Amino acid sequence: MKKPIRRKDIPPQRRREILDAAAALFAQSGYHGVTVDAIAQRAGISKGNLYWYFSSKQEIIHQLFEYLADPLFTPMQQILEKDAPPRDKLRDFARGCFDTAEANPDAVRLLWQIAMQPQLKELISYDYTNWMRPGIDILAPCFADIGDPHPRDTASFYIITLDALMGSCVIGSEIFDKEKILAVLEERFIDCRRDHDG
């Protein structure tokens, strides 16, 4: 009999299979409506093997959040880390959010389905905060540089607004005019303060 692989050695393909199975089941039945047995069966492995890979259903949901969020947030982080004038960085970040959402619609839909389950609020709020905080930390100085009197609050509002709009551009694409929304975001957040050169 083949010895199970310990968690640190999970093959990437196997991890994807398990997380894809969990994503489909959580989206369909909710967190409490899904058992570890069901995830294992859908992934085509034994429950025992699943427990070698993940210690609990809670660990699966944390890993799933990271798995879905990574292709969305990593490009955003790369935009924020570029050396560019503040206004350009803010514009590029907004456009990048929409482009990334449009390129990864399934991940956006699943994250929304997971996030809308009240029973998961406590489980994923820590993960969500850890994904959002670095963006706020980088955006706040941009808003300070363009003369915003409350740069951290504005950065928080900006990133939360964009997060919601990423979902809207996928879910309500037929009424979503990306260019018009980007123009409104620029007017409200970026061009409203011209006290400093940026």
Distance between the termini: 64 Å
Strand content: under 5%
Helical residues, percent: over 70%
Task: List the uncertain runs.
Answer: 1-5
Q: What would the average pLDDT be, to the nearest integer?
A: 85
Q: What Rg is obtained from the alpha carbons, in whole angstroms?
A: 20 Å
Shape: elongated
**SSE sequence, one letter per element:** HHHHHHHHH
Given helix and strand content, the structural type is: mainly alpha
Number of strands: 0
Largest sheet: none
Number of helices: 9
Give the SSE layout.
Elements: H1 12-29, H2 36-43, H3 47-53, H4 57-80, H5 86-103, H6 105-115, H7 121-145, H8 151-171, H9 178-190
Helix pairs in contact: 1-2, 1-4, 4-5, 4-6, 4-7, 5-7, 5-8, 5-9, 6-8, 7-8
Question: Keywords for this structure?
Answer:
mainly alpha; single chain; 198 residues; disordered N terminus; elongated
